[in-house]
Design brief:
The chain is mostly helical and 231 residues long. It has 12 helices and 3 strands.
Amino acid sequence: MTWTTKHLGFCIEKGFTPTAIKFYEWLLTEMNEGAEEIVDLRDFNKWVTAKRGKPHDNRIVRRAVDQLIEAGVIIHTKKFTSFVWKWTVKSIDFLLNPKPKKSQKRTPIPKKQPSNPSNTEPCGQAATTDLISALFGVNDEVASNLEQCLTICENAGINYEPEAAAEVLTYVEPEDLKKALALFHKRGGHQKIRNPEGWLRKCLERDWWEPPQRMGLIDVLLSLKKIMGVE
């Protein structure tokens, strides 16, 4: 099965993590939608390693699988071991335009006004097209950096809501983010820092990983003069 803009749009609409999106993409290279197959999660990490040089943490892969199950992408699941599963991948067309349940047919559905696009379902084709159009308007370098930063944060166990992620990470260099996270772990990481997302935001804004500048007596006196309001 081919990965399409429909699949990507659905992932964005559901707020999937980068790993979940990649896992979904990989699944479609391994099996057809609607077919029941046995899948080994370790094969996904082999595919990832070939692309980026190192595998994902197994816990992150399992969280990605959980996201796909919760969103209804993966159905009829049967777990044999922690890595080997049997499941079916639901058709993207069904995910975007699910059929109403029989009980819902008893209630007449009001007709939507075609002239008002706000009446369309958020997961429908129109919403998907809008999302993809928005994505295509993003500079390639910015999009690439953002994807790297999202993956780095995910691997560190720091997850932002989509709006916050765009605000905090869009123009951050991946190398700077790695330096910030190194400082995060040096200061105790998740065990000592109660709000990792907020801490990382401030760290990136203030470049906390940079060594403090040495201040001489002149610098201190100038600062004191400013505080005292002396001209």
